[in-house]
Amino acid sequence: MRTLYRLLLALFLPRTLRKAHGRDMQALFSETITEARVRGRAAELKAALAGMLDIASRAPREHWLRSGPAHTQHQEHPVQSFLIDVRHAFRSFTRHPGATALVLSTLTLAVGANIAVFTLLDGVFRRPFPFPASDRLVYLNERAPKWNLDYTNINFADFVAWRERANAFEGMALFQSASRNIGNGDRAERVLGLRVTHDFASVLRVPLVLGRMFSAAEDLPNGPPVVVISVSTWKNQFGGTNDVLGKTLRINSVPHTIVGILPAEAGFPIQCAFWLPIGGDPADQHQSYSFDGIGRLKPKITLAQATQSLFDAQANIWAVRDTARVVSPLVLSLRERLVGNYRATGTTLALAAALVFCIACANVAGTMLARSIARQSEVGIRVALGASSRRIVSQLLTESFVLSAAAGLLGAILAKTGIALLVRNADELLPPWALPEIDATSVLFSAAIVAVAALLFGLAPALQLRKHVAKASSVGGTRSTSALPERRLLNALVVSEVALATCLLITGGLLFKSYDAVRNIQPGFQSDGVATFQLSLPHSVYPNATQQVAVFHRVQERLSALPGVDHVGLVNCLPLSCRNGNFYRAEGEAPRSSGDIDPVVNTRYATSDYFAAMGIQLKSGRFFRDGEGSSKLRKRVAVINEQFAEHLWPGALAEGKRFTSRDNTADNWITVVGVVRDVRHGGLLEPIIPDFYMSTTALDSTDEFSSVGVAVHTRASADELLPVLRRVAREIIPDIPLFEVRTMRDVLDRSMTQQRLVAFSLAALAAIAMCLSMGGIYAVLSYVVGRRRREIAIRMAVGAQRGQVVRMVLRQGAAITAAGLLIGVPLAAAGARALSATLVGVSPSDPAVYAFAVVLLAVVATVAAVIPALRAARFEPKSVLSASV
Fold first, then answer.
1. Whole-angstrom Cα distance, residue 26 to residue 5?
2. CA distance 132 to 202
3. Which of 318, 376, 662, 741 is most buried, judging by how many CB atoms fall within 10 Å of its CB?
4. Strand, coil or helix: what is 874?
């Protein structure tokens, strides 16, 4: 067949073409036949026939191109050239479907990951809030270093003074989350809303769908019960009819008149079902610090100017009520306050996705480079046919663009699918106003990343073939170029892959170990076998703590009788759900100086069985007993935590000692009967603060105990107990809905959502990077084995053993891996130091993580090198040498 091919070349093709590239064409035909022979006789005949038909079909055009002025004047239109290159690219890729699929899947994963991460971060950090001129919205609060609080929330009287005197603002408003029961009887449900001042909508510039915002006259103490409801509440409760205004919605069993409908964008800063008036009293100077604030700056006003304006407004408060200047105003960028906790997570994910993208491009660049080297004979023929170096480079870049465009399309589909899965659980991960969605910005980013990918992995093979074109043009054709520069470039690409994979694997390992350390932090309570829920009684039906506690005790007694239930405890604030505090002093305590820290102390009311239900351990003393500390006897007792004991009586026993609230002047002391281990009420990573527990029997008709958390410990599965709890509670109080019905294990897991997201995302991206590096090592060694086929055959012919050949290939793979590790480990160390602030319980230089990453990559690299090494050892010297003649 080779003889017949040479004969056809001589008969049909122009002499100039045969002289310049006849040998290249014969060599290419011979290689094609040799490769096809492996697949069988039929494949060999098919390949031979295709080569011969190609000569016959091209011969007329080649003779015409080399005849007369057409040879010098013929030029293709750029669009025509591009379309030809695209068609050629599709033919080229379909000839090797397996390799094309591998490259395409590699790029798709990298592009899809980057689009998904970009869309996620764009929604959180860049996309404007859904309000006009949202860049002028700022977050307002107060801080008190003496109380050890970065955010105290805002006292209503302070806010009134700010609103009257601060001239840097167009307007400011307060808001506070408000969980309420809405509906009647069986239709009652627990929903989340906001209590806001009457100017909240005007500060945000939110136009209502129907009706109006409640007025200043309605936003006063004991004002009329009015409500503005959301679109979803309007549709769910009233069918979306336009006659809803003036109707009533029962909130905590009190009818509220509906005066307006909120638009969808009003779900800010939380997705809420309604807005209620705060009804604050400007004359009450001692209202608790309960509210968050939002302000709209005047045009061209900076944060520094706004802060100074609030300080000026606070001056009168410091002169009259707060002479020690304990509390001061705080102004922050609204976006920074709302998304600041996500910044470290976002930066980590963005860098990890970028590293995977670079690894994928290096991997594909190596594959395309090896492919371009194998096509040197083909390029030589094109040069002989009149193609310029620019035309060859254009073809190679077009192929890269086609491949990256396909990967971009598939990656966008993959990203959209991933984002859809994320949105399903977005209530745990992201605020509702930052939900990711594919928009015009995402499309532009996708196009940009496709273009960058095409350039990154297409440039190396294009430049390599351009050099081959120049050499072919200068010497009149050549069969091959020096393999050393090609091998060096391939090795450099794979070394970069291994280095970046090392960086990802080590940093991902550190974050995963940090997440494991967070999981193992002792929360101070037992999470297994504990089911919890919360109840809230309407004040209009149960007006005081005496009636409220009686209802809760009925629930407790009924739940205690359930099979498998060991303990049932009640508390006004379950761990990881809320914190309520005040300031306390010890009996006989000396007056504190103005510079002393006086922290807020959490105050909890609980039943005696609560400690056993939650597994809270006693350090010393005892728990209070049933009925102890009765409000009738006015002899109150408390169980305090270790932090509170250390705060009031450092280094001394606390049992038997007494304390009271800092502003209490009456003889109304609380006696300590026991000290329990610290409980992390604010979260596993939040600092522990002082707290204490008092018995619910200390409450009387003047107190308020409308909301309660119930903890049920069971010997069986806590998950199986949840539906039973709903049924039993509904039988006792059918008109009151349960909410936050969860196991304590689920509550604890939800508190670690962000750490888990980072750890598992980094682990997944590191695994992808490791697989890509493995593929890169395999590809470069396969190329080397293929290029050195004749050399290896000669070595074996003169006595080299197969084991020596295997070791030779494995040594090269080990050298590439070692170089990548030597570069990657210092890079990972630098990255780990940058992440040190997010690491918990693990050092940035943890030797176990580094050793694991190095050993794992070494093992993976060895596995990747074994296959081409064994293939080299199976060469038959006689067949290889005869085929290359």
1. 8
2. 11
3. 376
4. coil
Strand pairing report for 707-714 and 670-676: unpaired
Place of tokens 């093992």: 859
Query: How many other CB atoms are found less than 10 A from the CB of residue 739?
Result: 17
d(CA 175, CA 850): 48
Rg (CA), the chain: 37
Least confident of 289-293, 524-528, 880-884: 880-884
Pairing of β 189-196 and β 274-277: parallel
- By CB atoms closer than 10 A (0-12, 13-18, 19+), residue 140 is buried
318's CB contacts (< 8 A; 6+ apart) are: 325
Residues 6+ away with beta carbon under 8 Å from 360: 106, 107, 109, 110, 111, 453, 772
- Residue 261, pLDDT above cutoff 80: yes
List of E strands, 122-168: 137-143, 154-155
Q: Which residue in this structure is represented by tokens 């993580």?
A: 849
Pairing of strands 137-143, 328-333: antiparallel
φ and ψ at residue 511, rounded to 5 degrees: -65, -35
Is residue 785 within 8 A of residue 809, CB to CB? The reply is yes
Token pair of 335, please?
Answer: 């976006």
Q: Which residues contact 472 (CB under 8 A, 6 or more apart)?
A: 21, 379, 380, 383, 478
Give the C-alpha separation, 435 to 443, whole Å. 17
456-506 pLDDT per residue, tens: 776 666 666 556 555 544 444 444 444 566 667 777 888 888 888 888 889
Residue 475 contacts residue 384 (beta carbons within 8 Å): no
Tell me the residue type at 711: A
Count CB atoms within 10 A of the CB of residue 743: 22
Determine the Cα–Cα distance for residues 106 and 456; give it in Å rounded to an integer: 14
Q: Which residues contact 402 (CB under 8 A, 6 or more apart)?
A: 86, 89, 90, 93
- Mean pLDDT over each residue of the chain, to the nearest integer: 81
Q: Give kind and range of the element (H or E) at residue 294.
A: strand 289-297
Strand partners, 601: 582
* Cα 674 to the center of its chain, rounded Å: 43
Q: Which is nearest to 110 in space by CA: 404, 367, 400?
A: 404
Name 169's bridge partners.
297
Tokens, residue 816: 């590439």
97, 755, 95, 770: which is closest to 429 by C-alpha? 755
d(CA 588, CA 631): 24
User: Which pair of structure tokens corresponds to residue 870?
Assistant: 């064994």
What would the pLDDT profile of 642-676 be if each residue is shown by its tens digit? 999 999 999 899 999 999 887 776 667 899 999 99
Distance CA 640, CA 691 (A): 6
> Which residues is 248 bridged to in the sheet?
257
Please say whether the beta carbons of 501 and 772 come within 8 A.
yes
Helix axes 847-873, 802-834, angle to 10 degrees: 150
Residues in the chain: 885
DSSP 1-37: -HHHHHHHHHHHS-HHHHHHHHHHHHHHHHHHHHHHH
Among the ranges 2-6, 653-657, 812-816, which has the highest mean pLDDT value? 653-657
789, containing H or E segment: helix 789-797
DSSP 149: B
Q: How do the residues of the chain divide into helix, strand and coil, expressed in percent and rounded to 5?
A: 55, 15, 30
Phi/psi of residue 470, nearest 5 degrees: -60, -40
- Least confident piece of the model among 619-623, 748-752, 825-829, 872-876: 872-876
Is the torsion defined by CA of 119, 121, 123, 126 positive or negative? Answer: negative
Concatenating the DSSP letter of every residue in 500-556 gives HHHHHHHHHHHHHHHHHHHHTS--SS--TTEEEEEEE--TTTS-SHHHHHHHHHHHH
